[in-house]
Design brief:
single chain; about 300 residues; alpha+beta; Endonuclease, Chain A; four-stranded mixed sheet; three-stranded antiparallel sheet; 13 helices; elongated
Length: about 300
């Protein structure tokens, strides 16, 4: 009985590092044996989620747990990838797809999971995130292009740039390393990089990148990005976009732009200073940029015409 308790303690310790999961290999290595593992399941102390992956009884479930259970079921070099990896890296929201990649041609197919067999998934493209083996952000962006719409990939790229997970140069190197006939993800990412309005400059938010693309797409004049407005030696403000010759400043406000009264007061004071110096300040929200791009472009064009 003492040996059984010791084995259970070993499995519990492992489960604490694996989203309350125990993998079959660890259970067998503990000395429990196949019959002992079966008894743990039959006794209700472990719950079988996948072939080779068990949840400690009473532990809450989660999407991350579901992904790791699928990875453990495949075993070996399996990693979360594609849409699952993008969600783990916070590059997409709410996609519950369970998607894995392995470096071999055959192997288990976990229930409810998509498994990609890859011939170029080397160790340099893999890491861990939240205790789950996963493709790194660079490989994730390449893979995402093979399974998600271009706009989703473009926004994921901007999120990765904003959070400094990647640089444009590193993404281009990763794309080139995976470029080959038949790999659609590499081609999608190449087109997004080529069309990126900010070139190799990082934006401070996905909304800024969307605004830059809007300006380019609607044929508006070249704009200064993250422009500093000064009155002599005095710093006044740094604005998201500017047409300095016409003294037109453009700001884009995300959903949390005015998270507090102090932030709102700061923005209003800054805007009043710009106006006092003869600038026209335009502000657009996420719904403006995403849902009303033609109206946004028309407004900017009319203001520039009047300023000229």
């Amino acid at each position: 009985m003492k040996e059984v308790r010791a084995r259970r303690a070993l499995l519990a310790a492992r489960a604490r590092t694996q989203h309350a999961l125990v993998d079959r290999a660890t259970a067998l290595a503990s000395g429990l044996g196949a019959s002992g593992l079966a008894r743990e399941v039959a006794g209700g102390r472990l719950e079988r989620l996948q072939a080779g992956a068990y949840r400690v009884a009473g532990a809450p479930g989660s999407w991350e747990q579901t992904v790791l259970a699928a990875v453990l079921a495949v075993g070996g070099d399996a990693v979360a990838s594609h849409r699952s990896a993008a969600r783990l890296w916070d590059l997409v929201d709410g996609d519950s797809t369970v998607e894995l990649s392995v470096r071999r041609g055959r192997g288990p197919a976990p229930r409810g999971a998509i498994v990609h067999r890859s011939g170029d998934l080397t160790g340099e493209w893999c890491t861990q995130r939240l205790g789950i083996p996963v493709t790194n952000p660079l490989r994730t962006l390449v893979d995402l292009g093979a399974v998600a719409p271009g706009r989703v990939v473009a926004d994921a790229l901007e999120r990765a740039l904003v959070t400094r997970l990647v640089s444009v140069a590193a993404v281009e190197r990763a794309r080139a390393a995976h470029a080959r006939p038949g790999r659609s993800g590499s081609g999608v990412l190449r087109r997004i990089l080529d069309a990126r309005a900010l070139g190799d400059r990082p934006a401070e938010s996905v909304l800024e990148a969307r605004m830059a693309a809007l300006l380019a797409r609607h044929g508006l004049p070249s704009v200064a990005f993250q422009h500093e407005v000064r009155a002599g030696d005095r710093f006044i403000a740094r604005v998201d976009f500017a047409y300095p010759a016409q003294r037109v400043a453009i700001e884009v406000d995300g959903l949390s732009a005015h998270a507090s009264a102090a932030a709102l007061q700061h923005d209003l004071t800054r805007q009043n200073l710009l106006v006092s110096l003869g600038w026209t300040a335009l502000r657009f929200t996420w719904p403006d940029v995403i849902r009303r791009p033609v109206s946004v472009a028309s407004t900017i064009r009319e203001v520039l015409a009047r300023a000229a």
